[in-house]
Amino acid sequence: MRLILLGPPGAGKGTQAQILVQTYGIPQLSTGDMLRAAIAAKTPMGLEAKAIVDRGDLVSDAIVSGIISDRMDEPDCANGFILDGFPRTIAQADALTHMLDRKGLHLDAVIEIKAGADILVERIINRARESGGARADDNEEVLRKRLGVYEEQTAPLVKYYTERGLLKSVDGMQPIEEVTAAIRQALQ
Fold first, then answer.
1. Of these residues, 50, 71, 88, 123, which one is catalytic?
2. Catalytic residue selected from 114, 135, 144, 145
3. With contact defined as beta carbons under 8 Å apart, do 149 and 85 qualify?
4. How many of the other CB atoms lie within 10 Å of CB of 47?
5. Would you list the DSSP string of 137-163?
6. Could you tell me if 35 and 49 are in contact, meaning their C-beta atoms sit under 8 angstroms apart?
7. Which one of the listed residues 13, 36, 50, 123 is annotated catalytic?
């Protein structure tokens, strides 16, 4: 099964991806995690990405697409994967479609986890407080900028994937178990 999880920062994509990983035995391909690993390793790409992420901006399509394409070729992706954090723009969605076509693959579904901005800010500020502020992007100013970027650049993917008959929306404001149940139902 090949899935995309869409939703604004803090909507629960990472939490739901982990549940789907356990359920379907397929890996989560999180561009955020891959970029954070590159940043932590201080690779040249990681250092470049760090400056961009710290501003609350998006990393270039070329960097992200290359990371994703290489990762899809790994043996653990043979039965599918969950894309979390990619695509974020229509250009990335087009690149993904072409990438999958070249690999002889297709998407099974795009799950949109819907959530309101004010609740998301509260959620992420709490996450930062509970984790000791481990992530530099977990502050209100950067978060509001990320939500603005999401609305401007990523929200158009809802229409893009609806037109292709792939989009399934769930209410991300419910308890985790109810969101999980809604996703499972959408995938049947």
1. 88
2. 135
3. no
4. 12
5. T-SHHHHHHHHHHIIIIITHHHHHHHH
6. yes
7. 13
- In the chain the domains, ranked by start, together with CATH numbers, are 2-182 (3.40.50.300)
Q: Which of 114, 127, 145, 168 is catalytic?
A: 127
Q: Which of 2, 50, 71, 146 is catalytic?
A: 146
- Residue 50 has what pLDDT? 84
Instruction: State the burial class of residue 131 (Cβ atoms within 10 Å of its Cβ: 0-12, 13-18, 19+).
Output: exposed
Q: Is 146 among the residues known to form the active site?
A: yes
Binning pLDDT at 50, 70 and 90, where does residue 38 land?
confident
Spatial neighbors of 109 by CB under 8 A, at least 6 apart, are: 1, 3, 4, 166, 167, 168, 186, 187
Residue 69: band (very low, low, confident or very high) from pLDDT cuts 50, 70, 90: confident
The arithmetic mean of pLDDT across residues 99-127, rounded, is: 88
Tens digit of each residue's pLDDT (9 = 90 or more) over 92-112 = 999 999 999 999 999 999 999
pTM score of the predicted model? 0.78
Q: Is the pLDDT of residue 12 over 70?
A: yes
- In this structure, what are the phi and psi dihedrals at residue 123, rounded to the nearest 5 degrees? -55, -50
13 in catalytic set: yes
